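User: Hey, my collaborator sent me this sequence without any context and asked if I could get a structure. I don't really work with proteins. Can you help?
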Amino acid sequence: MKARTYRLTLWPVLLVIVLLLASVTMLAACSSSETPAASQPTASVQQNAAKPIPTNTPVPEVAEAVGGCEIGPKAECPGADFSGQDLGAVDKAMHGSEGRDAADLSGSNLQGANFSNSILKEVDFTGADLRKANFKGANLRGAFLYTADLREADLTGASLEQADLEDAQLEGTIFCNTIMQDGKINNANCP
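Assistant: No problem. I've predicted the 3D structure and written it out in structure-token form, which is a compact way to encode the shape of the chain:
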């Protein structure tokens, strides 16, 4: 009786071994040199295998002016409405030559400007006056805020991952559900 039990449990193991051998044989046949040329990847496909796949979506240029404000270094745009605008960089690796650099607003007067729900990835705000600016829900990933004046600015729900806040003035700045440079959420002074 024990011998039969042993034989009955041996059959599933043998079946698995046979199926594995059949799979290996099929794989070897598929990768042999007799495979038709049409099914083999071309050299260009092999070279691009590790690269990101570019999209065919056209990349809009950063607007030259928004709400009467000319975008550029040392712009004078206090109170300007940039809400929902995309002024950020677009990855050239994903869009090839269709990528773009972020807007340069360094040294600009943007006091009280509205950047809510805007894409400001890698935008240069170095030395900008951003006092009382509204950045609710804005994406400031990798933005340059070096020496920027952000006193009393509202960064509720904004993302500052990898942003440069060195020597920025942050007195009275609202950090509520704000993703900081290190990826941690700051709820220091939610209203």
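In plain terms: Residues 66-191 form a domain with the Pectate Lyase C-like fold (CATH 2.160.20.80). You can pass these tokens on to your collaborator as they are.
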